[in-house]
Amino acid sequence: MGAAGEIHLQIAGTRGEQGAEGVADNGTSPATAAPAPPSMSERVQWWAVVLVNIVLVLAGQSVANLLGRIYYDQGGGSLWIATVVQSCGTPLAIPLLLYFRRRPKAATTAVTRPPLIKISAIYAGLGVLLAGDNLMYSYALLYLPLSTYSLICATQLSFNAVFSYFLNKQKFTALILNSVVLLTFSAALVGVSHGSDGTNSSVPAGKFPLGFALTLSASALFSLILSLNQLTFDKVLRSDTLYDVMEMQFWSNTAAAVVSVAGLFISGEWSALHGEMDGYRKGRLAYGMTLAWTAISWQLTTMGLMGLVAAVSSLFTNVISTVGLPLSPIIAVIFLGDRMDGVKVLAMLVAVWGFLSYIYQHYLDDAKVKKNLAERSADDDEHQTVKLATE
């Protein structure tokens, strides 16, 4: 599958970065030297970073989706402003960007950066794709109840498995294929069941087919963006340090925000924002706070997503994102009055089953990596013992 292997590489890459250039400690070249097993502190440090990013994704995604639905229910109607807030929180990343930029870098780990024009073109392209994806999600959330929207979004893992196979050389296994099929089936259950739309949200009548299609399209594009992010780390930047992660997140989201703001003015929706604010049911302050916290939530989510792509893989990142989707229907039932009927319950259980199928494959691969490391370490110890005995 590759995810567990990437975990090992990520841990190994953090240990003093020795052997990046020059000669390994035992006198062999870096190309032939066996990588030393990661220490306990390195493994703990790596898992701590991963867990922080997971929390950012799960919490940020759930809150952002809930606030997005509340914005529409309380009288908000600007699709472009709902798109802008998904990427305009980039200034929050500036302190972290400056902090990691000032950190000293070891000379042996320096990587020649690609030309500025190449990096700029990549970040701009990712930003345009992200802006289009955000706009489709804005339409989809307007046309669907939050619970239905979240269940259909689970298909993003299926799309990402395909993109990861072609773009990131991710291997397919029976368990991954099973996960893809189950998540696709989960979305199909929601798609064919129009009776599962019971909700107290202000969802336009007759827009279910369009909302379903837009959610599928947005999920596919989101998966493509994650795979392209990983491809950029692996093939272009050839580095996945925290600074590289923050830089890609900042500039791609800045480009997306510029495109979204341009769309807001070109569409003419900006002229209606004052009246929309006055007509917001909870008041002008609530209107501003809803948009502000939505922007903050999406920014935290994006930070977590980018961190997981760099630390593990785009497919693992999508798995974590999918974990949070079952939370949204529950939140929608509690706060928005959505009806959780039998079809939605079944779809959610199938989605969880598909997620657990992928996690089990991840567990098997991680166990295999640990076994190979132990065997390699034992062989090295035996070789060293024989060498000392013959001297």
From TrEMBL:
One annotated Gene Ontology cellular component of this protein: membrane
Topology in membrane: Multi-pass membrane protein
Major localisation: membrane
KW tRNA-binding (keyword) present: no
Pfam families from the UniProt entry: PUNUT
Compartment annotation: Membrane
The UniProt record lists the keyword Membrane: yes
GO MF annotations, alphabetized: purine nucleobase transmembrane transporter activity; purine nucleoside transmembrane transporter activity; transmembrane transporter activity
Keywords of this entry: Membrane, Transmembrane, Transmembrane helix, Transport
Domain of life from the UniProt record: Eukaryota
Spans traversing the lipid bilayer: 46-67, 79-100, 121-140, 146-167, 174-196, 208-229, 250-273, 285-308, 315-336, 342-360
Similarity comment text for this entry: Belongs to the purine permeases (TC 2.A.7.14) family.
Protein name, entry field: Probable purine permease
Organism: Hordeum vulgare subsp. vulgare (Domesticated barley)
